[in-house]
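Researcher: Re-running this chain for the archive, since the previous output was lost when a drive failed. Same request as before.
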Amino acid sequence: MTPTRPRRGLTSVAVAGVAAIGLAACSGGGAPSKDSGGSGGGGAGDNSGYTLAMVTHETPGDTFWDKIKAGANQAAKNTGVTLKYSNDPEASKQATLIQNAVDSKVDGIATTLATPAALTGAVKSATAAKIPVVAFNAGIDQYQQVGALMYFGSDESLAGESAGKRIAKAGGKNVLCVIHQAGSVALEARCAGVKKGIPATSNVQVNGADDSSVVQSLQAKLAQDKSIDWIVTLGAPIALDTMKAIDQAGSSAKLATFDLNIDAAQAIKDGKIAFSVDQQPYLQGYLAIESLYLLKKNGNDIGGGKPVLTGPSFVDSENIDVILPFAKNNTR
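Model: Regenerated C-alpha cells:
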C-alpha cells in the first residue's frame, strides 16, 4: 500500500523590474509549521529589525512548500528580517493565523489566498491596523479586492491554457484534470485553462492528503474510461501517485503536471512525465518577503498594481538537465 502523505492545495500582466532583485541559492528546509512562534532569518544583511509574518495554506508534509520557505528564509537572511511562518490548510484556521499576526503587531504579512472569501476579513483587519499585506501563490484574480498590495505567482488560467494547447499540439484529445484540494481557486483555474486549450477535458476530485486514495480513484477512472489519453495533475506528489495508477490500470495515457519536486523532475528525465508547468515557488517566497522589506524601507511598490508573474515556466526533456540540479538544491 502507498503510505499516506499530506499535500498541498495549491497560482495577467507580466511586470518588468524584478530582475533588479538578486536571488542567492539556498538549500535550507524552511521555518517551523503551524503558529509555533519559530522564526527564520535575522542577524544578517541589512539588519533591518523588521518582523514579517508569512501565512500559508500548506498541508504539512508537502515538499512544494519547502521551496517557498527556502526562498522566504533567504530573503529574510539577506535583509535582516525576523520571519515568522505559520500555516493551516483549513481556510478558517488560516484566517485565524493572519489575525494572530495582526494582533502581534508584525511589520508586514505575506499570505496565500487559496480561499480568498474566507480570508478577506483577516486581511482587512491587517490593513485597518496599517500592516501591509502582500499575496503570493494563490489569489491572482482576488488579491486587490481582498486588500493585498502586491501579488507574486503564476497566472494559473494562462498556465492551464498553455498546458492544454501543448497537449493538443501533441495529439491529445481526451484529458483528465485532477483536482486534489476542494475549493482552491488556483487549482480550479488551472483545470479551466486546460479546458480552453482542449475542450474535451473533464475534472476529477481526489483526496490529495491520502496517497492510496488518489491511486485507487485514478486507477478506477482509467479502467472505466479507456479513451483518456492525457492526465494533468496539479501538484508533483499527485503526479507520482498518478504514475502508479497508470501502471496498475494498464493505461497508455500520458502525464503532465504542475509544479516540481525532485522525484517529479527525475521522472521527467526518465520520460515518465511529459512536462511540468513550473511556477517557481522559491521565487514566490523570496519576492513576497523582499517586497515587504522594500516597502517598509523605501516605500517601493513592485509591479505598479499589477501581478508579478513567476510562471508558467515549462520543464521538459529539452531543459531538464539544466533544471534538475536546481530541483535537487531546492532552489527552483
